[in-house]
Amino acid sequence: MSKRRFIIFCISLLMFWGCPPKRVNVLPPDDPNDHFPEISNTLAVDVFLDATLSMKGFLVPGVLSYYEQTLPLLESAVGKGWEGGHTTFYRFGSHIAPIAGRAHVEATQPGFYTNPEYFQKTFIENVIDYANVDHLTIIATDLFQNEVDVNLLTGKLKEKYLTKNLAIGILGIKSEFAGPIYDVGVKNYTFEYNSGSSQPDRFRPFYLLILGTYADVEHYYEKLEVSGLKDFPVKNFIIFSRYLSHPLSSFENARMVKTNKIVETGGLLAPGLLDKRLKQFRLNGDVAKADFITAFKYFPLPYTVPFNPATLEPEITAWKHQANQLAENESAKRAFHINGINLSENELKVEAQLTPTVLSEGEVYCYRVILRPKDYSMPAWVSDWNMPTRSIEEWRKKPAAFNGATTFNLKPFLSDLWEMVVQLHRPKVGEFYCYVKRG
Amino acid sequence: MKRIGYHIGHLVGIIFVAAVIYFVFLIWLEHDYFLSQRVVPPAEVTLEEWLDSFKFWGTVGILSALAAALVWYILGQLIFKINNWRDSGKRVFWFLLLLLPIIAVVLGIVFTKQAQEGAIFAYLFYALNWVLCYYLATALCSPSAFKYTPPGASAIRRW
Questions:
Q1: Are the Cβ atoms of B43 and A259 closer than 8 angstroms?
Q2: pTM score of the predicted model
Q3: ipTM of this complex prediction, to 2 decimal places
Q4: pLDDT cut 70: percent of chain A above it
């Protein structure tokens, strides 16, 4: 080798050595709706009290009913939960009107429910229309809707709250009751009911619909508990929102249990580019199959609708990195399979398998895996508290057998509400990203 | 003055050999081009973390071989006084100094992160690097009186 050739060889060698491999400078798309809301620093709370005749029965002579005990908690929970939080009370029925000053304390007096301007009809949907979505809205009602139009109510809630990523909390509390119950069944029958005061199971349920961000709704409930709700014998709480767990299970809180023929690397993304949701992998081109098992931490949120963990389904999206962009690539999807998902109390274990031969040598692909529950089931109390429609005609014949400890249309109302959440948001429990390069 | 230049020449030679082994062998051939393509680290260890661990222990091996070669040079130049290396009986010291890089290699094998595939290459490279570093440094740059003490040095050192 001549001296000149040797120098050229050395320079070429240095140039080759000095060229770093091309890095990806694009992160996967981010869904702003996934951002979990924070508890508001300060909050305006609007409390709407159902002032119709059906509610009057919760005022039982000689007994401080749980309904009456709840009324002061509605305001004190705001004071405990939010510094400078402000509560405004309204009464509703046929109309809606603010309650001036401290007049809301009159809700413990029968006269509050016999005002002819309000008592005749319950239009909860009007309250939804009236509500300000920037406030936390509390509606205290027995959920006996005029014309029993559940669809109208759920439609309003969907339009005003669910589509805006807000949450709906339903707190059911059983309370002593004595008096007539109106609007029972599609024929709007009226029954007399006396729960007595010694058997909480016979108490009649009333509900607080708590409407706002998930964080505020949950925080309000926690403060109600602290304020005194914890001592109530029969109560149930459920939140309808897109959030089932927080944070979502992702590589940010995960450990690799096993890797096989797959190399975890930090060298695919451009320096300085960070995304805790993703991991980067390299596959040797001549490998037929590669796989890994990851155990993600699972942070279930309280009060959400339960689901069957065996029905978690993966949804895989594949992109190919080209021209500094991620372009969706259907054929690359064939290279990524989820072979197993196992959800235990606090851990979500996922088995993934890759087929490198499907991918082009030297190219970088991005995979997004979203894990969504398929089968949900309402908690048992929803069925227990639901008024069986078939029994209403029998009760008509034998009024003494009437079960006032149930609510007409409760189950359809809550089931429809959850169906809407599922249709709108398709709730997820996990979302993780893999950047994969073959070769 | 000429004497000082002679020593500096030999010491620079020893360091040059270590530098070549480090940059050309350890960093370029082994780290960048061989192991990065063949090693499959275990779960929870990225390729870069594994390669960093290889580089660290490989550097320790080369530095210990360099230290052994420098000690050998100092011993030969300042401590041992002989006229004929064949009669000096000092080859045993040369072999004893080999223990230093051997210990470093053993440490490297023990403490380098485990790998599912390819770790054996790393262990071979550790051994190759210290053998090359210690042997070439001492075979090429030993003091004149001991220039043929390293086995086979007579075949490669012609000055």
A1: yes
A2: 0.84
A3: 0.73
A4: 93
Kindly tell me the burial class for residue A156, based on how many C-beta atoms sit within 10 Å of its own C-beta (0-12, 13-18, 19 or more): middle
Nearest to A321 by CA among A385, A248, A269: A269
In Å, how far is B38's CA from the nearest CA of chain A? 8
| Closest residue in chain B to residue A20, using alpha carbons only | B32
**B82: closest CA of chain A, how far (Å):** 42
Cα–Cα dist B142/A185, whole Å: 106
Q: How do beta strands A96-98 and A86-92 pair?
A: antiparallel
User: What is residue B6's predicted lDDT score, i.e. its pLDDT?
Assistant: 77
Q: What Cα–Cα distance (Å) separates residue B142 from each residue in A24, A94, A126, A190?
A: 50, 106, 98, 111
Peptide bond before residue A247 is cis, with ω within 30 degrees of 0: yes
Q: Which two tokens stand for residue A186?
A: 């599609």
What's the pLDDT at B119? 92
Whether residue A134 contacts residue A204, with contact meaning beta carbons closer than 8 Å, is answered with no
Lowest-confidence pick of A19-23, A280-284, A286-290: A19-23
Lowest mean pLDDT among A14-18, A39-43, A341-345, B48-52: A14-18
For residue A19, what is the nearest residue in chain B, using CA coordinates?
A: B32
Contact criterion met (CB < 8 Å) for B41 and A263: yes
The one-letter amino acid code at A44 reads: A
Chain B hits for A293, CB-CB cut-off 8 Å, are 43
Inter-chain touch B43–A292, beta carbons under 8 Å: yes
Nearest CA in chain A to B117: A261
Partner-chain residue, chosen from B42, B46, B116, that has the shortest CB–CB distance to A265: B46
Give strand pairing partners of A91: A49, A97
pLDDT in tens, A77-117: 999 999 989 999 999 988 899 998 887 788 999 989 987 77
Quote the crossing angle between the two packed helices B2-20 and B119-141, to the nearest 10°. 170
Using CA atoms, how far apart are residues B106 and B96, in angstroms rounded to an integer? 16
Rounded Cα gap, residues A149 and B105, in angstroms:
80
Size of interface A-B (CB pairs under 8 A): 37
CB contact under 8 A, B43 and A263: no
What contacts A57, CB < 8 A, 6 or more positions away?
A: A177, A178, A179, A180, A181, A193, A204
pLDDT digits (tens, 9 = 90+) for B16-30: 999 999 999 999 999
Please report the sign of the dihedral spanned by the C-alpha atoms of residue A90, residue A60, residue A64, residue A222: negative
pLDDT in tens, A216-226: 999 999 999 99
Bridge partners, A327 (sequence order): A320
